[in-house]
Amino acid sequence: MTELKILAVDTATEACSAALLVGDKLFSRWEEAPRDHTQKILPMVQAVLDEAGLSLAELDAIAFGRGPGSFTGVRIGISVAQGLAFGAGVPLIGISTLAAMAQGAHRLDGAERVLTAIDARMNEVYFGHYELCDGRMQLVGEEVVSDPAALIEARGKLAGSLSCVGTGFETYGETLNALADELAVSQVRFPVAVDMLPLARAAWLAGEAVAVEQATPVYLRDKVTWKKLPGRE
């Protein structure tokens, strides 16, 4: 059986990363670069391919951070992934950025129950609750975008200890601490492409890869209300 080869790219948050799975080997690049995603991501992709001695055409699939996250960042990530996949003739696998962060907490901290929250601006967070199953973080319930106080009211308090990851806990920690009896703060702040790979591998084996034109982002926030400028009502 040939080795499975999956490239992962993520630009959905302030971080930018690329990673490559070749059988059981991992190659990874990551950098916090809030405004340089378009300049950083393709060199990172080339770096992991060069390190592994592979070309795009040898890949089985490309995974991308499908969101939620920055609107611009999510769009950059899916556009890059679609361009690479179209050129290589391979399918795409969308991976939740929240799930990738939860997977990172397991990799780095051994966490098995994780709450993820990304600061969504506008006094809201992108939120997900994950629990470990067969080495991968599985979503409990749904990912949502919510005002932190409304989230507490809707979810209630979870029993036991959970790890918390993401910028949402940095910004709204005083409120979000009410989500569990005990919260352990993880070192994970942003998604990392290398943590998308276990999830992408499982998705590939389950037949969940899609054609390039079928890949879609997940924003969670369907509509944004902007203040209208004078003369633009």
Automatic annotation (TrEMBL):
<dbReference type="InterPro" id="IPR000905">
    <property type="entry name" value="Gcp-like_dom"/>
</dbReference>
<dbReference type="InterPro" id="IPR022496">
    <property type="entry name" value="T6A_TsaB"/>
</dbReference>
<feature type="domain" description="Gcp-like">
    <location>
        <begin position="31"/>
        <end position="154"/>
    </location>
</feature>
<comment type="similarity">
    <text>Belongs to the KAE1 / TsaD family. TsaB subfamily.</text>
</comment>
<dbReference type="Pfam" id="PF00814">
    <property type="entry name" value="TsaD"/>
</dbReference>
<protein>
    <recommendedName>
        <fullName>tRNA threonylcarbamoyladenosine biosynthesis protein TsaB</fullName>
    </recommendedName>
</protein>
<dbReference type="InterPro" id="IPR043129">
    <property type="entry name" value="ATPase_NBD"/>
</dbReference>
